[in-house]
Amino acid sequence: MWLGELMQGYARNGQTQAAATCEYPRSLQGRSIASLTVEEFNCESPRITFEPQDVEVTSGNTVYFTCRAEGNPKPKIIWIHNNHLLDLEDDTRLNLFDDGTLMIRNTRESDQGEYQCMARNSAGEVKTQNAMLRYSNPPAKPSFIIQPQDTEVLIGTNTTLECMATGHPHPHVTWTRGSGEALDESRHLATSGGLYLQNVTLQDHGQFTCHANNNQGSVQATANIIVQAPPQFTIIPKDQVVLEGHTVEFLCEAEGNPPPIIAWTKAGGQLPQEGLHTVLSSGTLRIDHAAHHDQGQYECQAVSPLGVKKASVQLTVKPKALPVFTQLPQDASVEVGKNINIPCHVQGEPQPIITWNKAGVQITESGKFHVSGEGMLTIYDAGQADQGRYECVARNSFGLVTANMFLTVVAIQGRQAGDDFVESSILDALQRVDSAINSTRRHLFSQKPRTPSDLLARFRYPHDPFTVETARAGEIFEHTLLLIQEHVKQRLTVDLEGREFRYNDLVSPHYLSLIANLSGCTAHRQVPNCSDMCFHQKYRAQDGTCNNLQHPMWGASLTAFERILKPAYENGFNLPRGVGLHALSGGYSLPPPRLVSTEMAATATVTPDHQYTHMLMQWGQFLDHDLDHTVPALSTSRFSDGQSCSSVCTNDPPCFPIIIPDTDPRGIRAPCMFFVRSSPVCGSGMTSLVMNSVYAREQINQLTAYIDASNVYGSSERESQILRDYSEPRGLLRTGLLWVPSGKPLLPFSAGPPTECTRSEQGSRSPCFLAGDHRANEQLALTAMHTLWFREHNRVATELSALNPHWDGDTLYHEARKIVGAQLQHITYSHWLPKILGEPGMKMLQNYQGYNPNVNAGIINSFATAAFRFGHTLINPILYRLNDTFGEIPEGHLPLHKAFFSPSRIIEEGGIDPLLRGLFGVAAKLRVPSQLLSLELTEKLFSTAHSVALDLAAINIQRGRDHGIPPYTDFRVFCNLTSVENFEDLQNEIKDSEIRQKLKKLYGTPGNIDFWPALMAEDLIPGTRVGPTLMCLFVTQFQRLRDGDRFWYENPGVFTPAQLTQLKQASLARVLCDNGDNIQQVQADVFVKAQYPQDYLSCSEIPRVDLRVWQDCCEDCRNRGQFRAFTQESRKKRSAQYSYPDEKDKDLSDLISRQQDHLYIDEDGRNVTSLAKAKFTQDFSNFAVEIQKTIKALREQINKLEARLRQAGCTDDKGIRRKDSEHWMKEDCISCMCKSGQVTCMVETCPPAPCPSLELAKGTCCPVCRDPGMPADPPEKR
């Protein structure tokens, strides 16, 4: 038929002629093919008569697919596999039978899939349905067909590791290197056949592993890529300049394959052979004890078969040199009010650092002093206070040298610009300061406190009259100078350094002394009388006086804080840093403390300390309240106009508000935060009655400096008397309500204002508790600690009374007080400090070597104002309250801001035990430099709905500026840390670069950094809870507190050896057991975190202090233990055997009796021997010696008494002899009296002026009302 269609086409085109006839069938024989029709051809298209069926087969078997078809002409059978025609010729496993059947021999996995039969002839084609061949193979673990092989490759080229595996199911191939680390997909391309590595580097050198995995298992095959590379330096040595004697190390490291060998040469030759040159295995060249002949050129060579690399360095060795003065400071003199430069130049290697000291206190950069880079000291506005000996100290790593000079300040005779304004200014200052103080008192004490801040101010307001007068005098003195300065400001020229005026030439010395007298500055506490040695040898004075008998005021209450660095005031006198008109160093001004707080201190994240408990923080606060308490401002109103500091945002004394930045969320509510300055002490806090110079502002410590439990007993005789219970002579402290469940007393309630703390949530009134420190109510955990220790005193006093019923109340009180103070010392130094300072700090602190009367134990200002405030970073935002199984009590835990001034919660919510368990049963907050203070302390401190919450971090920074605390970098110099030029120089102590960047952003220059935030940002020394600078200050202060305390519990003679042994059994765990309401289980060390219950002990297992060693051993004790009794001291010095006269006869008769009992008669009865004869003779001799000593002591005492009786009268400070009871006027305002051989002087206090116009009459102290008709005398005639 196709031929007919072709010929028909040719005929139509007319281009080709062709002819063909049909032979068969006979009916069409002879006809032209082109003329035949389709029907006449009689063709039939294929038709399937039998279709193939699905089949399953296993590996290696034979399978048949049958297909039958009919058609005309006979159709051809074609097979299709997975939509592709089968190639029967290339695959010998396939056979097609004549009937169309497909045979597949030796089947394999690739044969599976869909098979389709197609029948085709000239009439058409037809296909069958798909038939499936399912290949069923038994599961098989992977096995490698091709394994990777070790391959060497040159660096920078490409290579492939081949890897192929089989298995059922088909395995998945992956690659790893080394011990299993993943491959860098950017450079390692895994293909189906292996691993392709591009641009091979030395890092590709190593072992690679091919992994083939399926559900039946896995196999691995490893191969090594061996990268061949010529040597390349990874660390190139650098030129060095070293000092003679130092060890030099030139680092030189290279890589390559094979690894290169490092060799060193000097000047092209071999290294010297004397043994001081060593090439370490790392390739480093070490030269020990470098000498001048070691300097020169050295060459590091990296050698391998693929090449050599070389690097040259130069070593310069300088001779070492201690600092040597090239210009020594010389004695000099300067007029009052002038500046002076004192040169001090040194040289040395390394370059020495120069510092200056005066009276042992390091001088710092301030408005008063400047030390140039070359070492020149400049003193601005010299005054009599600046006179004295100065020491230039030059130090480098090899040592230090010192040189000193004496500066004489010459007073200028004549009048000064401010003299004319002294009288009016002093009267104005008196009126302003007293008015502001009275306004503050009315606000605080004439009404109930409206806010927690009011209550805080109430409790911190001084109650002791002498404290008030001391602080008032300091304020009046400073404010008088400020008023005089305002009067004469128009006449003064601003000097080149930008200081507005000079204080020392503002008024003449005479008028300066007059200002001091009229303001009350000369009414200092008199030098204490330490003559009662029977008392002072045995017990502490309540106010800390007479501890150091050479310096009775050292460590006493109401004295100025000590300094280790000179204060840094903007004007050298009293103005805080950053308040002046001029930018600080480097052109940067100080950031607002609130900004520093929000950027660096505040954190919502708290990391628990898994090693120590929250008791670590609480003991620190309790101890701090035994050491220091700054006298706050007596007024919370401005002196200038009486406006409250809480309503103004200007630096107008005593207001010193904390400015809230515009970007701070609090800026919406208030532009500033309430803050007033600490009260100043007049002058430097000295006891002299003459003040002829202006001293830098100093602050007052209300407490005794010593660790003496003043927070339990008070820091003055007046406070101690208020706290004592005189109802019975038992030496007890006053008690309050009994806690009913335990029957143990709570603290007594405060009898004077303030008597009422904040109301509880239930609306009940909450009386404030009374303790030795006025801050006992500030937060509940602190109140619990005060309760604990007042109970401990009463427990000890009661037990001593039972042991010594003949002791009177005073003896019991002082002996118990002595024991309690010793316990505080022992717990602090043996249990608490080792956790804070760790092993490194305790080594620096050293063991106790005995009392040193040359050590001043006073509290250092920077320690109280910054360093010891590190405890704020340990405070948890929640006070946990736990029951006796250490679960939460029904009332729940307490957010810190709800624990302030709420003693009602102790009365109404479970007593003190839940709080105490929450301290020793819960972890402390870990100080992390990026997590300093909880938001409870920076955003909610003493907050109420109607007041601006305070920010403890901002307060700490502002208080440091108020106290003139020098910047952080100055303390680094004091502590011998590395000098700081830029913020990167801090990286050894502050490793976090983000924190250093914050400091840079805030302060601009390292010289501006405030002390407290830098201390807190320092990284902790391993094993401690402090950084390097904080460690330095802690060791300095705690050494002084221990070594300068005559009553330190380890000082021989303070306690007997037996008593000291018992005191060393003391622990806070024992105190908790004895004085908690019902504490039955504690860990042995309550500062260490323990697991409950396995790490807890029963209270019966905690060692006790055995007080029986305090028992008097005597038969007739009626006269023993009477306070101040002379017999107590005299008998103490006699032997126990002959203590009492009435025992003499008894002892002698006993001795004779013992002699008779020991007679021995020999065998023949002739010789009688006394075995006790020798002992009797010795005992009698000792008895006679003791009698002679006693008689001699009595005669000495009688002579002293007679001498004192003969000495009638006194000698005053001018050497004039005064009669007993004689009165005289030392100055217009100072009256003195001679009484009992001692001179006592008092300063007259002037009453409030009854009239507006006053004048000071000659020979009188107080101003009087001026007669309106009389002209005023000129100032010089008064």
UniProtKB/TrEMBL annotation:
The cofactors named for this UniProt entry are: heme b
Q: Which GO terms describe its molecular function?
A: calcium ion binding; heme binding; lactoperoxidase activity; thiocyanate peroxidase activity
Chain sites annotated for binding heme b = 872
Q: Name one Pfam family in it.
A: VWC
VWFC domain: from which residue to which, for each copy? 1208-1266
Origin superkingdom: Eukaryota
Which keywords accompany this UniProt record?
Answer: Calcium, Coiled coil, Disulfide bond, Endoplasmic reticulum, Glycoprotein, Heme, Hydrogen peroxide, Immunoglobulin domain, Iron, Leucine-rich repeat, Metal-binding, Oxidoreductase, Peroxidase, Repeat, Secreted, Signal
Q: Which segments of the protein form a coiled coil according to its record?
A: 1184-1211
Q: Where is the Ig-like domain?
A: 46-134, 142-226, 231-316, 323-408
List localization entries.
Endoplasmic reticulum; Secreted
Recorded hits in InterPro entries, A to Z, give:
Haem_peroxidase_animal (IPR019791), Haem_peroxidase_sf (IPR010255), Haem_peroxidase_sf_animal (IPR037120), Ig-like_dom (IPR007110), Ig-like_dom_sf (IPR036179), Ig-like_fold (IPR013783), Ig_I-set (IPR013098), Ig_sub (IPR003599)
Give the Enzyme Commission number. 1.11.1.7
Enzyme superclass (EC): oxidoreductase
Any one GO BP annotation for this protein: response to oxidative stress
Reaction catalysed by this chain?
Answer: iodide + H2O2 = hypoiodite + H2O; 2 a phenolic donor + H2O2 = 2 a phenolic radical donor + 2 H2O; thiocyanate + H2O2 + H(+) = hypothiocyanous acid + H2O
Listed GO CC annotations: endoplasmic reticulum; extracellular matrix; extracellular space
> Which family does the record claim for this protein?
Belongs to the peroxidase family. XPO subfamily.
Query: How is this protein named in the record?
Result: Lactoperoxidase
